[in-house]
Specification:
This is Peptidoglycan/xylan/chitin deacetylase, PgdA/CDA1 family. By secondary structure, the chain is of the alpha/beta class. The chain contains ten helices and eight strands. The protein has a single domain, classed as Alpha-Beta Barrel (TIM Barrel). Helix 8 links the parallel strand 6 and strand 7 (186-190).
């Protein structure tokens, strides 16, 4: 059992500070995370069947997150995609489907990323700034295309490993999320995994008690000079570059 779960529930009920917005909107040049203990929770592969439950939980804790959505799912569920955006969360491009881009020709990579980018913009009125490759697998073609589209790549810095079926138990994923949490981390999870969504109330409760602010990836990266096509945060060799 993770040590964090021993925190008294009465203490854990204290809510985090109001969710961050970009520095420009706050009327300051100082990055929010320069003065706050920030963590970025990210959710892949949606919008899926549990997203409304997840959005409700995030709202209860004044938490903002980043959703890396799949183009084919955005096409099926435009209203859910709009709901994510209207709820104040960030939407990133996760390609058109789960196909590993490194197995494709350049033209096909371009189409999958580009079609998703255009559809998200059409659906939400805003073009994504972030990209996450399926399976974390990327190559020179992915770098060139994301650079052309003005996207920065965000594979994440750690993961709960909810993509492994044997790990899909609420207690395990709760403990795992608490174990990998840390200031400045970008945590990779999947909104399509029911057990992940069910683990979020306790995860948010415990991390709130530790003083975390739950922010979007863009808020976390404020103050950095970002080059489209490049990977951020720059942490070579992290586990999320593995196939999943």
């Amino acid at each position: 059992m993770a040590v964090r779960r021993l925190i008294p529930l009465a203490v854990a009920c204290v809510l985090a500070a109001a969710a961050a917005t970009p520095a420009q909107a706050r009327g300051t040049d100082e990055p929010y995370c320069a003065t706050h203990k920030c963590i970025a929770l990210t959710f892949d592969d949606g919008p899926g069947p549990y997203v409304q439950t997840l959005l409700k939980t995030l709202s209860e804790y004044k938490a903002k997150a980043t959703f890396f959505v799949i183009g084919s799912e955005v096409k099926k569920h435009p209203k859910l995609t709009q709901l994510i955006a209207k709820s104040g969360h960030e939407i990133g491009n996760h390609s058109w489907d789960g196909t590993y881009l490194t197995s494709l020709k350049y033209a096909d990579i371009n189409k999958k990323i580009g079609d998703t980018q255009r559809l998200i913009q059409k659906t939400t009125g805003k073009a994504p700034k972030l990209f996450r490759a399926p399976g974390g697998l990327r190559n020179g073609g992915v770098e060139e295309i994301t650079a052309k589209l003005g996207l920065i790549q965000v594979p994440g810095t750690t993961a709960t490993k909810d993509y492994i079926k044997d790990y899909r138990h609420v207690d395990f994923l709760t403990n795992r999320a608490l174990d990998v949490a840390g200031e400045g981390e970008v945590v990779l999870m999947h909104e399509t995994v029911k057990e992940t969504v069910e683990s979020m109330p306790e995860v948010l409760q415990m991390l709130t008690a530790e003083g975390y602010s739950f922010v979007t990836v863009s808020t976390l990266l404020e103050g950095q000079e970002l080059t489209p096509g490049q990977v951020y945060p720059d942490q070579p060799g992290v586990e999320t570059t593995a196939v999943h």
